[in-house]
Amino acid sequence: MNFFTPEIVAIIIEVVKGLVILFGMVIVAALLIWIERRVLGLWQDRYGPNRVGYAGSLQVVADMLKIFFKEDWIPPFVDKPTFIIAPMIAMGTLMLAFVLIPITPTWGVAPDLGIGVLFFFAIAGIEVYAVMLGGWSSNSKYSLLGGLRSAAQMVSYEVFMGIALMGVVMETGSFSMNAIVEYQATHHWFILSQFFGFCTFALAGIATVHRHPFDLPEAEQELAAGYHTEYSGMKFGMFMVAEYVGVVLISALLVTLFFAGWHGPFFAPIVWFVLKTLFFVMLFILLRAALPRPRYDQVMAGGWKFCLPLAVVNLLVTAAVVLATE
Amino acid sequence: MADDAPQFRNPAPSGVVPDVVRELYARFGENTFVYQPTKDDAPTLWVPLEQRDAVLIFLKHYIPRPYKMLLDLHAVDERMRRHRDGLPPADFTLFYHLLSIERNSDVRIKVALNGEYPVVKSIVPIWANANWYERETWDLFGIKFEGHPNLQRILLPRYWKGHPLRKEYPARATEFDPYLLTAARQDEEQNALLFNPEEWGMKRSEREHDYMFLNLGPNHPSAHGAFRIVLQLDGEEIVDCVPDIGYHHRGAEKMAERQSWHTFIPYTDRIDYLGGVMNNLPYVLAVEKLAGIKVPDRVNAIRVMMAEFFRITSHLLFLGTFIQDVGAMTPIFFMFTDRQKAYDVIEAITGFRMHPAWYRIGGVAHDLPNGWDRKVREFLDWFPKRLDEYQKAALNNSILRARTINVAQYNSEEAVEWGITGPGLRATGVDFDLRKKRPYSGYENFEFEVPLANNGDAFDRAIVRINEMRESVKIIKQCMNHMPAGPYKADHPLTCPPPKERTLQDIETLITHFLGVSWGPVMPPGESCQLIEATKGINSYYLTSDGSTMSYRTRIRTPSFAHLQAIPYIIKGAMIPDLIMLLATIDFVMADVDR
Question: Would residue A27 count as lying in a domain?
Fold first, then answer.
């Protein structure tokens, strides 16, 4: 009858924590849709959604209800299995990446994972397939062009995304997220020593989740809706939520890797973590409101000719400094 | 009526033989031509069909300061026309309206055609931009052009039967059988839309790879209306493309032949639907030339002021959608706020917003309301500051510059060759603005500059338009400060609605008024044409009156038609995003293309 051994209890607690983080994050991502629309409205001389609930805060609920009850329609000309699996990959992989984030010293699913940063790269690598498969399986020309753009963009941006973070890893001496945060809490925030790493990683991060101005795979003015032109209903909803999960993920990663995560004076760690993450989320939205979109070849050129060399130089200098101070 | 020996007739109204006529007489002999007096300034010469090409080539290449631009080409069905004294016998007439920027002058060459369905040689080898005009003439008149690269219908769908601008073709829906869309008919109509690359001389594949054919439109976020362009793609590079128009065709020219001179005015509003009363202007000016009406100064000033308001609203919409097409989503909302402010003024003065149909033959619909100047001043205080801000925040953005500078570029020669006018021409450095060069409606009384740029790329076209808005503000300010007093309608029996003051005093005026109101005014027979600098380029109405309550033929030359025709030439070899930039900076509306 001694079913609830301390180990089991610990596991249950961990599972519950994991579920709380998972749902919390999905809810935040969904809320973000409303926040973004309201904030954009504020910046653009208009209201944004303000009818459902207080100041439109239940807009998400209304949208979700609508999207859940929409016919789950699959166009007859698509490649069915791939078409269905693509949005799942989009949402699933990005959510999986959240296991890495140490939200507070005690909350987090697997912040101690030894291969932490590498795990994120792997996830980002798989994420590309969502867009590529979505674009390719749709069997539509606009989707295909979106998928092509996405493939090219990811290939060029993931190269230096890895290199950009190697400086952080070298200084810490570990791939583990927890170790990285601990190091910053005891030494200095990496934004100081790894400024160029931060810049290049932030760019690559935006490109990875293809948010504006790197939203070329779905550039409305050129490719209608790009890779998700043929999607509707919940499958489109998954792409949509994935985008916002991506925004939260990249913001949380930037905070964790360069701004010492939950670390900060006076307030509880959770407050610091949320505040910092929210700051970057807002930055993402502001970028969307403020910037035009570069052309596809200009994005590629920017990646290969500017970001990659910068990341490499940053890596070499960091290595030299680490060697010299040891 | 038939002239066996065509002879020189008393030339232009002023009595002076225009230079071009003298040069043509010197080159081809006086007997080659028949001079037709018209009520506008463009010398009009009839040429025998055999001599046409020689005359056109001479005018384009060999005459000093040549007529490089084919501004317009179309036809007239002459079979029902009663007043053609002294003109060569013809069933149909082809006319070529040529423009010389160096001379700042026009010449109209006419060719008489005989037979039910005449066949003539195409002039595409002389002017590449005759291509679409000849297709349109074939489409609407059934005149065949031999040697044309691909003589297809252009405005009407391919399965259409008949040629609507022919006089025997009915104009009213009640004269047709009811339209029924059966399944078979739907299939037929769908199939007619399929794109066949071979027909346009395109290859489906090379030895190593296939091309992708992408339908951009007729529903596409950046196509600015129902415009379709089929792209032949190699990756994202545009190898070739075929613009397809006609989805917005409403037969405005045919409608002009069954509406009275007065009741056609609202139709003109909907030609360039962003141009509002600016569209009324060339039409009423051309009608006034026919009628011989001279309008009071106040009318001129009011017309100029309202036209410039619409230039601002149209350019603002251009600016917003252009920046949005570059990918920045915010600015367009600010521009809509500004347009709202402008429409507030327009609404207060005309009672309508987008389509006021407010100009009248010989005047405007009403006098300015009390307090109009306060409204105008509010707008003038608000707007220029915002414009500076847009330029600083949006157009100086480096991403926008990288997207637009040296993109979709053409030089002035190419622009003239393709009939590109308006900001698209001035962005290449050609100082040609009709408001300065051929002032109409009293533009000569205003001080303003003609903004120019040199590079002829997408960015320059945007900058020219921004600066044009600044000049429009200047013009409106002058109108506000110096609005002449006086009547808002000319004192002339043909004004519409006709003057009523003395109707109850003498029977003649009563009769004139009664006829003018019930039939509409009867314009004396003749031809007149008015070119204006509209929001998007040169817009002209070429009216033929046969002494009736309705126009015999109304030819509407719109700038966007010519601009769209040039797309394949400009964009070959560029990428899809560059095409979007070109579409955005042409600033067309499909209603203006298809009429």
Answer: no
